[in-house]
């Protein structure tokens, strides 16, 4: 801070501002403050946090869901569904979105679990081949 005041004092002396002129001194300090703030403002980047929404759906969890499982077993494995549609009581939708703060795109995953008589009949959506064949002998 001392170096800054020495540099400011030598700058004021080189500009030949009279000691009694407080208005000129105030304008000079305001100008210097704005200049320093502008220069430092370009060096600072803002932190952008990652935003995750919905149920985290892992492939391991999906591999555990099999045809014939009950709703409570599916809820235990995948969690409470993001959308439980009252018009389609035999359908649970799981949605997951991850938007990284540093990237302009987001990763999304959507899985639908279909039931018949409160038992899993199929799993659809972003599911790999292992899950589709997992319930078949």
Q: How would you concisely characterize the structure shown here?
A:
The protein is α+β, with helices and mostly antiparallel strands and 137 residues long.
Describe this structure in words.
The protein is an alpha+beta fold. Residues 1-5 and 130-137 have low confidence and may be disordered. Strands 1, 2, 3, 4 and 5 form a 5-stranded antiparallel β-sheet that branches. The radius of gyration is 31 Å and the shape is rod-shaped. The chain has 2 domains: 2-41; 51-134, Beta-lactamase Inhibitory Protein, Chain:B, domain 1. The protein has helices spanning 2-15, 22-41, 59-64, 71-78, 129-134; strands spanning 51-54, 83-84, 91-99, 106-116, 119-125. It is 39% helix and 24% strand. The termini are far apart. The relative contact order is 0.14.
Compile the SSE list and pairings.
Elements: H1 2-15, H2 22-41, E1 51-54, H3 59-64, H4 71-78, E2 83-84, E3 91-99, E4 106-116, E5 119-125, H5 129-134
Antiparallel strand pairs: 1-3, 2-3, 3-4, 4-5
First-residue to last-residue Cα separation: 76 Å
- How many domain regions? 2
Count of individual beta strands: 5
Mean pLDDT: 78
Structural class: alpha+beta
The CATH architecture term of the largest domain is 2-Layer Sandwich
């Amino acid at each position: 801070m001392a170096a800054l005041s020495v540099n400011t004092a030598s700058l004021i002396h080189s500009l030949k501002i009279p000691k009694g002129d407080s208005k000129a001194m105030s304008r000079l300090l305001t100008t210097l403050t704005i200049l320093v703030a502008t220069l430092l403002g370009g060096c600072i980047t803002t932190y952008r946090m990652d935003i995750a929404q919905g149920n985290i759906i892992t492939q391991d969890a999906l591999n555990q869901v099999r045809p014939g499982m009950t709703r409570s077993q599916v809820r235990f494995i995948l969690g409470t569904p993001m959308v439980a549609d009252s018009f389609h009581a035999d359908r649970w939708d799981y949605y997951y979105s991850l938007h990284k703060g540093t990237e302009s795109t987001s990763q999304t995953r959507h899985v639908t679990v279909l039931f018949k008589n409160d038992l899993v009949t199929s799993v659809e959506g972003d599911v790999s081949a292992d899950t589709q064949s997992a319930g078949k002998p």
